[in-house]
Amino acid sequence: MTLSPLSRSALAPTLPGHYYTDPDVFALEQERIFGRQWVYVGRAADLARPGQFLRADVGTENVIVVAGADGRLRGFLNVCRHRGATLCVEDGGNVGKALRCPYHAWTYRLDGSLVTTPNWRAIEHIDRAEYSLHPVAVDVWEGLVWVNLSPDPAPLTDQVRPQIEYRLGDYEQFARYDLGELAVGGRKEYVCAANWKLIFENFQECYHCGTIHPELCDTIPRFADPATFTQGYDAGGYEFADDHPGFTLSGSVSIPRLPRLTDDDDRRYFGMVVRPNAFLSLTPDHVIVHRFVPTAPDRTTVVCEWLFHPDVLAAGIDVTDSVELFHRVNEQDLGACEITQPNMTSRAYRDGGVLVPAEEVLITRFREWVLASLEQA
What we know:
- There is one protein chain.
- By secondary structure, the chain is of the alpha+beta class.
- The protein has 9 helices and 18 strands.
- Helix content is 24%, strand content 25%.
- The strands form 4 sheets. Strands 2-11-10-5-4-3-6 form a 7-stranded antiparallel sheet, with no helix packed on it.
- A hairpin with a 3-residue loop joins strand 14 and strand 15 (278-282).
- The longest helix has 21 residues, at 320-340.
- It is globular and about 75 Å long.
């Protein structure tokens, strides 16, 4: 397909409206973005024991990641080699020692190799190795599991580390949060009637914060300033209000600071997108991880997990106050995207909208990444 050129005006342009609605654009994104790049699909902690698995939609494929008897994570297309039935119909669980097709009972080891089939003697002459499950590249970064459909992908760190360094300037500053050591203390899933790019763009500006995020602005007063993000991210983070020592709905603090953080990290918030489908929020005592799953041109599933130090959860400390703050932010953000999506088909938005300076640096960077990814043959 031919992608529409972007028009220029006094203000920087957004993508034209059809980029958020056109099934052909969505299909191209599934092929050239989610079908070629590393995509975040879940947490390694959920795959700690042999046989544990998760499944996820990645590009045009449904994949499974399973923990082997050797502890290694392996990924496969969730497709039986016999007649194409879905092997794992649940989103997660434990398959035991083997993957067994629920249709005709073809059975595979956890490494994807074919073990046996009903009436094996009738086809015992075949080479079982030729009927192994189709493999998918899997890697783990900071406790997060990523898959890549490309046959020979570049290392995962080549994709994610530059994005962290762009945001913070220093990777060690991020490493101190020990993301891979944290445990889930809260999880919410949302279905948003909006294109995934509208959500990603929303998460990269705070021009809207003073309008729709009263609780967040009470916590971080700088977010109420429409000029915030005019120069892009502030590498030093965003300070909490004097009367809000904690990143909680009440503003109070009941959770110890993460062990390796310093006084310089205290009372500060750092947010960052990690393309193509993650958003990280760093706070002094917990980390929030969003995962975005585009399911249609006008629909996106958003999974949000609140991660705390395991000792906090083991001690039975109530983390509801922390979870509730960003849950409200999520509902507000996704609601704003939902009132925007219907007008992406309007002739008023045929050539797109515009970006004020507070939006321009980060959203333009995202727009250029989208276009560059789609234009790659």
